[in-house]
Amino acid sequence: QVRLVEPGGGLVQPGGSLRLSCAASGFTFNNWPMNWYRQAPGKEREWVAEITPDGGRARYTESVRGRFWISRDNTNNTVLLQMHNLNVEDTAVYYCYHRGGYWGQGTQVTVSS
What we know:
Elements: E1 3-5, E2 10-12, E3 18-25, E4 34-39, E5 46-51, E6 58-60, E7 68-73, E8 78-83, E9 92-98, E10 102-103, E11 107-111
Parallel strand pairs: 2-11
Antiparallel strand pairs: 1-3, 3-8, 4-5, 4-9, 5-6, 7-8, 9-10, 9-11
C-alpha cells in the first residue's frame, strides 16, 4: 500500500524559509520520480516541482524557480522541498505526489506577517 506522509508545514513570515518533507512507503522509492504540488485557496491544484528517481535532475514551475529546491534521500525514502524567500502567493496546501496516482494528505503552508 502506497503511503505518502507530509509532516511539517506551518506559518512563516514573508521572506522566510521553510522545509517540507514527505516520507514514502509501500513502493520501490528509487524507481519513481517524485513531485510536489500545491493548492492555494480558491485555486486549482498546481504542479510545483519534480525530481528524477536518482535525484540527478529536477524541474520547477516558473513561479518558484530559484527559490524552491526539491531533493530526495533514497536511503530513507524521503523527498524534500526547501523553500526560500517565501511570499504570500506561496500560501497553499502542499502535496507530495507519486506518478502512479498517489497523493499525500497535504500540509498547510501559510506566509503572513
